Every structure is written in C-alpha cells, then in structure tokens.
Amino acid sequence: MDCYGGFADGGYLCFFDLGGTIGYALECYISSNLDEIESKLVKTPSNEQYYAELTAAELALDDLLGAFMEQGYQTGMKKRLEEIKMLRRHL
Question: What are phi and psi of 14, to 5 degrees?
Fold first, then answer.
C-alpha cells in the first residue's frame, strides 16, 4: 500500500489512497485560491493568469479523481498527480 501525502502546516499529511490526496489538494490548494481570486473586485492581468492556471489544475485533479473513482488505482495515476502538483508549485 502506498502512502500519498506531503508536508503541510509543519507536519506530514498521509492519505492511504489517491482519492484522499486529490480531494485534499482540490480543497486546500485549488478551491480556496480560486475563491480568493473570484472575491476580488478588480482582476489584474497577473490574477487572470493565476486564475487560468488554477482552473487548469482544478480540471486536471477533477479528471484524475473521476478516473480513480471509476477504475480504482491504475498505473500512472501517481505520476499524473505529481505532474499536477508540480504545475501548482509554479502558481
């Protein structure tokens, strides 16, 4: 059994399946940042780009979560999650 997770808030979070990790990433890293940008009255060009990149990451995580729920864990899903996480680090 793999452990999926990462350092957060001074500790290490561990999820025992890919679905938990994806859900956490969606809520804590994507949705909260999207909500913050959407609540701003004035969007700057840099906010527009950031918003587009967050939206792309959210869609990629949604797709991965859907595939995991339909098919269970498949080879390559962990790599896809890591690629999405790398995208988010650039945000």
Answer: -130, 125
Decide which of 5 and 30 is more confident.
30
Place of tokens 């999926």: 4
Distance CA 60, CA 54 (A): 10
Q: Would you put residue 89 in left (φ > 0), alpha (ψ -120 to 50) or beta?
A: alpha
Q: How many residues does the chain have?
A: 91
Instruction: Please report, for the chain, the start and end positions of each structural domain, with discontinuous segments joined by +.
Output: 18-90
Question: Which amino acid appears at position 80 of this protein?
Answer: R
Average pLDDT of 30-39? 75
Neighbour count for residue 74 (Cβ, 10 Å): 12
Nearest residue to 30 via CA among 86, 76, 79, 91: 91
Higher pLDDT pick, 27 / 62: 62
